[in-house]
Specification:
The protein is built from 16 helices and 18 strands. It is an alpha/beta fold.
Length: 422
């Protein structure tokens, strides 16, 4: 199998699959066929939120005059798929990584690809290498369902969304794209007949097209025959974390320790709130409308001990200290609580809404469902961000549990601390 080449592009033809892969410097919007647009997992298209220099930002700038048509196509897609879940406290949906929403504009075909997490402007979550690999593994089968003969994609990560450590460079990102595409071909799940990987800017000028065409693409194709997949070990992910931690150690993130201590303080306060209502009774309503009186029997020591030891592992401490300025990310608090709820049954028969009440020291609500204080304690900032109604906050547990399970390394670290204290 001989690759076709030019100085401007790397071309690799897979004759037995009648398929061709091209890496070249080009404008993705000028290509034929289906153009895959990486975007936030909420399929966000609002130019006040997304970055204008991103691929989705450029896409919306080019088609701003018909943004209502794009929105209606996204709405139609949302109503007809099941791979979605409600985001916290509002009606927006988050789609699983690699989901594709088809968009047609004047007979030109696009698809929005759920890539990264971005809740609002300047709130973009980084991806691990494992996340990046999983995205492409899930994307190709979904692209196949769109039945496009030609597909063009850009290489995401590096400008707006950081992926992995700084050593994870453009060539390695392309290697993941090519490897997962080839594996899909080997499994007889051909996503398309022609795939174009579009490069632009200085990275396109210095890319080794000849080397990729002659050596790397043939090598990756030969490797794809083997029954192995790329996975990121704990040690590699840990190196990725250490790379990020250097920024904190260098003083680039002085609020990190403040965020961590605030999380620890909130968790210890929750343990005290639980202790204060031990063996109290609370009314609990079922989905059918009936109610019963539940005695609160929850041991606060597990949560208190976890709070005191969650900083012992430097990687877990780094992860839990992430947030905005001096406020920690409340997702981390709910990730920990969700594991205690779903996997250790810490709160017994209490439903999610009553778990929120017990954690906050509130045991009643008024006729509107708003909090009624049991004591002079106030709702902490991290919880207030999630909503002022119990129903809105309680829905966070399930989503948080799914999110932390996607980050296997940190999930394992949290479980390790819990198991030690359980």
């Amino acid at each position: 199998m001989n690759p076709d080449m030019s100085e401007q592009e790397a071309v690799f033809t897979i004759r037995q699959h009648s398929c061709r892969l091209i890496i070249k410097k080009c404008d993705i919007f000028a290509q034929k066929g289906l153009k895959a647009i990486h975007c936030p997992r909420t399929l966000e298209t609002d130019l006040r939120i997304i970055y204008k220099e991103s691929v989705i930002g450029q896409f919306m700038l080019k088609h701003e005059s018909i943004k209502d048509s794009i929105a209606s196509q996204i709405k139609a897609y949302t109503e007809n798929v099941t791979n979605k879940q409600l985001t916290n406290g509002n009606s927006r949906y988050t789609f699983s990584p690699g989901s594709v929403c088809p968009i047609e504009i004047n007979n030109e075909k696009f698809c929005l690809c759920a890539f990264n997490e971005q809740t609002k402007k300047n709130h973009v979550k980084d991806l691990s290498i494992a996340d990046y690999i999983a995205y492409w593994e899930q994307l190709w089968p979904n692209i196949k369902e769109l039945k496009a003969e030609e597909v063009s994609i850009a290489v995401p990560g590096g400008r707006i969304v950081d992926v992995g450590p700084s050593e994870f460079n453009l060539e390695q990102k392309i290697g993941v794209i090519v490897h997962t595409f080839f594996k899909c071909l080997q499994e007889d799940k051909k996503p398309c007949l022609k795939l174009t990987i579009c490069l632009w800017g200085m990275e396109a000028e210095f890319f080794n097209y000849t080397g990729w065409g002659k050596s790397i693409l043939p090598y990756l194709w030969d490797m794809s025959y083997l029954p192995i997949r790329w996975r990121v070990s704990n040690e590699k992910t840990k190196a990725e974390v250490n790379d990020k931690k250097d920024d904190i150690d260098d003083g680039k993130d002085p609020e990190s320790e403040i965020r961590f201590q605030k999380l620890k303080t909130d968790m210890i306060q929750i343990a005290k709130n639980i202790e204060d209502v031990f063996e109290d009774e609370i009314e609990q309503k079922s989905s059918g409308g009936s109610s019963q009186i539940i005695t609160i029997v929850v041991n606060p020591e597990l949560l208190r001990n976890f709070a005191n030891h969650m900083g012992d592992d430097s990687d877990l401490r780094y992860y839990l200290s992430k947030g905005d300025k001096e406020q920690y990310d409340p997702n981390h608090l709910f990730e920990i609580l969700s594991i205690l709820i779903y996997e250790y049954n810490m709160f017994g028969p209490l439903n999610k809404q009553n778990i929120v009440r017990v954690c906050l020291g509130y045991t009643q609500t008024d006729h509107t469902g708003s909090f009624v204080q049991k004591s002079d304690a106030i709702l902490t900032d991290s919880w207030r961000k999630l909503g002022t109604r119990i129903s809105a906050i309680s829905r966070k547990f399930e989503n948080s549990h799914k999110e932390i399970q996607e980050h296997q390394y940190y999930y394992g670290l949290i479980k390790k601390v819990i198991d030690t204290e359980y």
